[in-house]
Amino acid sequence: MREVWFESEGVRLFAVEDGDGRVIVMLHGGMANHLAALPLIAPLSLRRRVIAPDLRGSGRSWSGGLLTFDQLAGDVEALLDHIGVDRAVVGGVSGGSGVALRFALRRPGRIAGLVVVRPVYAGEELGYTEEQKTTFAMMDAVASRALDDGVQVLRPLYENLPQHMREKALAMLEEFDAASVVATSRFIASGAQPFASAAELRSLRIPTLMVRGDDPVHPAEVSDLYAANIPNCTVAPAATIDIAAAIGAFCEQSANSPG
To answer: pLDDT category, 259, cuts 50, 70, 90?
Structure first.
């Protein structure tokens, strides 16, 4: 893996990349870093240039300032500018899918395909479900202590994860910054959404792959909303095991799409 450092609006941001060819950018979810997104694209590096950034306020992209979806989408554009690429497949998992979606809405001419894996956001008209509100408020109550007690306050949250996720999550903590943790947690708990309504989803004219969600944080009804409203949307079931293979097949199909 090669390290990539770039700047956006005065903040130094970090990413890793591998491979050569057409670019795939995959964005991680909240309270994580590039390690959470990398497995979804790393197997494709034999034929593609795969890039996994740490979003502003996460991992090694330290920033304690106010976060917005437009700002995070702007960081994706700054990354493409930095590496000299006009268009790329851009995707995200969990909360990162919201950033990818916002980028697609803001800069459709720079995206060759959109990938949303287990989406979280239902838009401003619907907002979070009650279970999402409760979960994100609980996370924020813990994360808000990071400035006083350090980032290790997150350790109990990560230790409750399934074993195959636990060690990776705990390893992420070593690169976290307390102010960034607080900023990210507040952003998630705020209920900010990457789009206003289903009408915005219907405006997308970009080949899209969605891997459905099916748990309280990634509600099935959000996936239903996307499937019903995003034109040219390929839907993969929540039980999809080899997501990287699904993304690879999608990229092959969308490589020659117009636009």
So the answer is: very low
Tokens, residue 119: 């989406």
Q: How confident is the model at residue 257 (pLDDT cuts 50, 70, 90)?
A: low
The pTM assigned to this predicted structure is 0.95
Q: How far apart are CA 111 and CA 198, in angstroms?
A: 20
Residue the block writes with tokens 């999550």: 169
- Quick: pLDDT tens for 194-229: 999 999 999 999 999 999 999 999 999 999 999 999
Q: Reduce the DSSP state of residue 15 to 3 states and report it.
A: strand
Q: What single-letter DSSP state applies at residue 231? A: T
Structure tokens at 54: 């740490």
Non-local CB neighbours of 80 within 8 Å, separated by 6+ positions:
23, 25, 86, 88, 110
Q: What burial class does residue 111 get, using C-beta atoms within 10 Å of its C-beta: 0-12 exposed, 13-18 middle, 19+ buried?
A: buried
Q: Structural domains in the chain?
A: 2-252 (3.40.50.1820)
pLDDT, position 256: 60
Residue 118 and residue 94 in contact, taking contact as beta carbons nearer than 8 Å: yes
Question: Tokens standing for 139?
Answer: 């996370």
